[in-house]
Design a protein that fits this description.
Blueprint lengths: L1 H4 L8 H9 L10 H19 L7 H18 L5 H11 L3 H18 L3 H15 L1 H17 L6 H10 L3 E2 L1 H9 L4 H29 L6 H31 L5 H23 L3 H15 L6 H36 L1 H4 L2 H21 L4 E2 L2 H11 L8 H32 L7 H25 L1 E2 L3 E2 L2 H7 L24 H25 L4 H15 L14 H4 L5 H4 L6 H37 L3 H13 L1 H13 L1 H29 L5 H20 L9 H7 L1 H4 L10
Antiparallel strand pairs: 1-2, 3-4
């Protein structure tokens, strides 16, 4: 992050220099010791994750405490922790720019890539308001309070620098709890998305004030130029890398390793290009890149590759978070203990707690109710290393490190541990009546499922029969269910069609429809572009479940109709082959959409009926679904009557794809049972994959008659009265 520190060269504070010089004779220190510290941190983090799993103790708080303990031991033992101590000092001395460049791209890309893009579109205005004006208001409020009440004679630029430094926020604990408690996607997306934008805006604000503190030009023209260049430039670079990488992924076929490598390399390369080469915000660049991937590449990776990609990024984010928080604890401990003149003064601790109060007040004013992330700790470390010059004294740099470390610790411990209490106070941890009823239904079905499993496995030809009471004694989830099975349809009978129940069931139905679309994409029944359109229609319908009946066909209807500009295509000006291509492409897309819509709704209706039977709420939602499918059925019937070749070609493609997938599964099964060995499997797999690749890139094409005959024979294009919804 060379653009942050400008002309200021990294500086080691006097306390740190003295501490290092006292132990400069450690000839056994080896750069490889850094790996020992990283490995030890991951082992400790993994052990704590397993130990505190299911408890109310936030994982990040535990990591920070571990880091503080390690840093305190290293300092207290006068650097006699051996190899681990050497590793701690290597990591502590790493340039903060390098830390940001190593950890931030992975953390930012994973967060933005896993977000719900549809919800981002809905909440974009609120997120921009919170992360833009909200951060600026919070920064100026905090800077003003520091300037007016702290006794350090800092000028306004330095005070605002600390205010901007403490503006970077992260809602890890909040979002995790909200998801666990079943909060709405809109709320979790708003908090998570605001945090991502907040990170980017806060670092840009920090860069601005840091340049001003370091004596660079600070007139309004240069400030506006800096802000516009950082924001628009970052968006442009992020979009450019996103477009290039998505195009690249289109040429990758079922190669998980290549797909993961593309996403990993492009995130780091985009960050470096923006931060070091273009001099704009790398954080905003990676955030835009991740959101672009979430919007346009979610169907580019299918099936097992899709799961592997998300698992990889979850693992990368977990490793990065573990190392960052433990390292932050080490930096806090080393910074506090080495800065004795500051940390050993009671007044400094008093002002730390006062600053914590100021931070909470400023975030309330700025509407940023989240948990501080250690990004501000890294930036504070950067200020300490850049201090000790004409513009920023070493004492000020040490105070910045002391205050940022203290705020990180207090917000993680206090805010992180009290979040669940706040959610309980706001009654956000209680399940709605409809959700409780669904749980009861599921429990009843669990008993029936367990009984079926016992019937299938209870008698064994070799071992004989099993004892059901013993089974239930070991399966504790069944103990409270036997003998007290409530009617699973209770509450959904006639006269009890509560709007909340219907809304909840519409949501579950549409989720089932979307799941069916994913399955059809994996099976090759629909293309990636068709899948994107279908998924978007479900997202839009989910927004309206509280006020409208099922309406996901509303978003698909314009893509099935023939727009008015197709009249122009009949003129002699347009080449006939181009007209044929456009019309056939439109027809094929409309048929894909209609058939997939009908199939997904049929699957979801069957699932809902199997789960709720003939209850009134199920019948209501099923009836809405059947009404939704009327136009799609009519469209396919018109195509079948007027131009059956289209449906035949589409069905041929689907069957071919299904057969090849079935052969692929057959080969894997032969390998699983030991009838095929590695080289044989590889050969057969390559042959099938080659056929699949050819099918995707060169599918069976439709041979059409000349355009005049086609126009004359197709009522969808000729006769507007044949189907009133379709236009030429």
């Amino acid at each position: 992050m060379a653009s942050i520190i400008g002309a200021a060269s990294p500086y080691r504070s006097p306390e740190k220099a003295i501490s290092s010089s006292l132990f400069s004779d450690e000839s056994d220190s080896n750069p490889v010791d850094a790996v020992i510290f990283a490995g030890t941190s991951l082992v400790l983090g993994t052990a704590c994750r397993q130990l505190f799993n299911g408890t109310r103790v936030p994982y990040t708080v535990v990591l920070l405490v571990i880091g503080i303990v390690l840093g305190s031991l290293e300092y207290g033992t006068k650097h006699n922790l051996g190899k681990i101590g050497n590793g701690i000092r290597i990591w502590y001395d790493i340039n903060p720019d390098l830390l940001l460049a190593v950890f931030l791209p992975a953390l930012l890309f994973e967060s933005s890539f896993s977000m719900d893009v549809h919800q981002i579109k809905r909440c974009m205005g609120q997120m921009v308001l919170l992360a833009g004006p909200g951060v600026l208001i919070s920064t100026f409020c905090l800077g003003a309070l520091i300037k007016l009440t702290f006794p350090y004679n800092w000028d306004w630029k330095t005070s605002l620098l600390l205010g901007g430094l403490l503006g970077a926020t992260d809602p890890v604990a909040v979002v995790a709890l909200l998801k666990e408690l079943g909060a709405s996607k809109k709320m979790t997306t708003l908090i998570d998305g605001e945090s991502l934008m907040n990170d980017g805006v806060s670092v840009v604000v920090f860069q601005l004030f840091f340049k001003m503190v370091m004596g660079q030009n600070s007139d309004w023209g240069s400030i506006i130029k800096f802000l516009v260049q950082n924001s628009l430039g970052a968006v442009g670079i992020g979009l450019a890398f996103g477009i290039a990488s998505v195009i690249w992924l289109k040429f990758v076929f079922n190669d998980t390793v290549v797909q993961i490598t593309v996403t990993l390399s492009v995130s780091y390369f985009a960050y470096y290009t923006a931060q070091e080469w273009a001099g704009v915000s790398g954080i905003l660049t990676v955030m835009v890149l991740g959101m672009f991937f979430a919007a346009f590449a979610r169907t580019a990776v299918k099936g097992e590759s899709h799961q592997s990609l998300h698992h990889f990024w979850e693992m990368a984010a977990y490793i990065a978070n573990t190392l960052v928080f433990i390292l932050s604890g080490v930096i806090i401990a080393e910074g506090v203990l080495s800065g004795r003149r500051i940390s050993y003064q009671g007044i400094s601790w008093g002002f730390l707690f006062l600053l914590y109060l100021y931070v909470q007040l400023s975030r309330c004013v700025g509407c940023c109710v989240t948990i501080t992330r250690s990004i501000c700790k890294t930036l504070g470390h950067m200020i300490q290393q850049s201090s000790g010059n004409l513009y920023l004294s070493s004492e000020t740099g040490t105070r910045f490190l002391f205050f940022t470390g203290g705020i990180v610790f207090l917000t993680l411990v206090v805010n992180g541990s009290t979040t669940q209490l706040l959610l309980h106070f706001l009654r956000m941890d209680t399940l709605t009546a409809s959700k409780k009823r669904i749980l009861e239904y599921t429990k009843c079905e669990m008993v029936n499922t367990a009984l079926k499993a016992f019937e299938n496995l209870g008698d064994d030809e070799e071992l004989g029969s099993a004892n059901w009471p013993t089974v239930t004694r070991h399966v504790t989830s069944l103990k409270d269910l036997e003998g007290g099975q409530a009617n699973p349809h209770k509450g959904y009978e006639a006269g009890n069609l509560d709007p909340t129940n219907i809304m909840d069931m519409r949501i579950r139905f549409l989720n089932g429809v979307q799941a069916a679309y994913w399955e059809m994409l994996d099976d090759g029944r629909i293309t990636r572009s068709t899948a994107n359109v279908l998924m978007q229609s479900v997202d839009e319908a989910l927004d309206l479940v509280s006020t409208n009946s099922l309406c996901d066909w509303r978003g698909l209807e314009p893509r099935v109709h023939f727009p008015n500009y197709y009249k122009f295509l009949q003129s002699r000006i347009i080449p006939r082959k181009l007209v044929t291509h456009l019309i056939v492409e439109r027809l094929e897309s409309a048929c894909y959409i209609s058939s997939a819509f009908l199939r997904a709704h049929r699957i979801a209706r069957q699932q809902l009926h199997d789960f709720l039977g003939n209850s009134d709420v199920a019948s209501t939602v099923i009836s809405e679904s059947e009404v939704e499918g009327v136009e799609a059925k009519q469209f396919l019937e018109d195509v079948r009557d007027s131009f059956p070749q289209v449906l035949s070609v589409l069905k041929t493609r689907q069957v071919t794809h299904y057969v090849l997938n079935h052969l692929n599964g057959y080969i894997k099964n032969l390998e699983k049972v030991g009838l095929l060995e590695g080289k044989e499997v590889s050969h057969l797999h390559d042959v099938v994959q080659s056929d699949l690749k050819k099918l995707v890139r060169n599918p069976p094409l439709l041979k059409l008659p000349n355009i005049e005959d086609f126009m004359a024979s197709n009522p969808l294009l000729k006769d507007r009265s044949s189907f009133r919804s379709y236009h030429v």
